[in-house]
Amino acid sequence: MIDLITPKLIILPLLAAVVTALLTPFVRNFSTKVGAVAIPSIRKIHKNITPSGGGLAIFAGFLVAALFFNRTSPEILGFLIGGTVITGIGLLDDIFDLPPATKFFGQILAALIVIYSGVRIEFVANPSGGGLVNLGFLSLPFTFLWIVGIANAINFIDGLDGLAAGVSGISAVTLGTVALLSGRYDAGVLAFTLAAASFVFIPFNFSEKKKIFMGDSGSNFLGYSLAVISILGMVKVAAVFSMLIPILILAIPIFDTAFAIIRRLLSGKSPFQPDSLHLHHRIMNKGYTQNQTTFIIYGIDIILGAVAILTTQMTDGQALYTFCAVVVVLILSAWIMGLIKVERNGFHKSE
Q1: Is residue 139 in some structural domain?
Q2: 3-state SS string over 182-250?
Q3: Residue-level pLDDT at 51
Q4: Which domain holds residue 85?
Q5: How many structural domains compose the chain?
């Protein structure tokens, strides 16, 4: 089986990269014509009106490659249909600045489509003494919350050039590596294909003269895809620690989103109300430039990915201790650096 799939690990990511690269300039022009542009504001880092429909190119590159996947199971088909829905709603938001409820509806619809196709979290680790617990009827809400949660998490960190695309690409490579090590070859191919589409978009995002943002169409699609691939690649594997590996891989967006929600609730604000107190804002407030901040977060994400891969070679007990140690180190480091300080006096303007 691996002999049949190995060529796909090269061909499909390469195809996704080529299509994304070729389409991005056209999508940039299209975004400008239809009004999918990001307007500078006090909360945003960029200073110029910038096309923001780049997610359409990422999605198209991934979709074209995925359509050459000759093992289109109901799960993969549901994944692609849901991806089309969430990208479409995201693009409409990039154009018309939809209200949060409408965007959330798109995420809900995409999640329900892929869940209906058979993508579900069916087991969790038993915290009282090893083994697995079958979620039963709780499988549906667990899966729904995971997909919608990760979609929003990537959307929340999409605040600097190259940040969401880079973190998504690094996370996808890690997910793909662990999936292959777990024998989930189809999920591994999809993960590396997603990574290729993400990475090739980064130079366009960093460009000064031809800059384009991925927008909500891109961040929602990438978050949704990472969530679904993590289920296909690991969560369905009957191993105790497999459920925690995706959390470790996606720790940065997960922790940033969790702290954002807690921060906003404690400040009496809606958890969906945007602010300028995300991880990347706080790092920049320490004196780092946009690019330095992006690469700092890349570095942290690479380390977390390496740890996640190493845990696949450990016993469940060793892996669990490692996971807990990483979580403690992340929280303490963020606390010491003042990155998770709760602000009660409104928004802070990033410097």
Answers
A1: yes
A2: CCCHHHHHHHHHHHHHHHHHHHHHHCCCCCCCCHHHHHHHHHHHHHHHHHHHHHCCCCHHHHCHHHHHC
A3: 96
A4: 2-249
A5: 1
From the number of C-beta atoms within 10 Å of its C-beta (0-12, 13-18, 19+), residue 240 rates as buried
DSSP element (H, E) containing 55: helix 55-66
pLDDT in tens, 104-115: 999 999 999 999
Does residue 182 contact residue 312 with C-beta atoms inside 8 Å? yes
In 3-state terms, the chain is what percent helix, strand and coil (to 5)? Answer: 70, 5, 30
Query: Taking the mean position of all CA atoms in its chain, how far away is CA 83?
Result: 13
Integer Cα distance of 188 and 179 in angstroms:
5
User: Tens digit of pLDDT for each residue in 155-211?
Assistant: 989 888 999 999 999 999 999 998 888 888 889 999 999 999 999 999 999 998 899
pTM here is 0.89
Q: Are 160 and 294 in contact (CB under 8 A)?
A: yes
- How far is the C-alpha of 341 from the C-alpha of 54, rounded, in Å? 33
Average pLDDT, the chain: 85
State the distance between the two ends of the chain, measured CA to CA, in whole angstroms.
53
Which class for 46: exposed (0-12), middle (13-18), buried (19 or more C-beta within 10 A)? middle
- Structural domain contains residue 289: no
Within a domain: 103: yes
Look at residue 315 and tell me whether its pLDDT is greater than 90.
no
> Residue 100: which of 213, 267, 212, 216 has the closest Cα?
216
| Single-letter amino acid code for the residue at 11 | I
Q: If phi over 0 gives left and psi between -120 and 50 gives alpha, with beta otherwise, what is residue 204?
A: alpha
The answer to whether residue 13 is domain-embedded is: yes
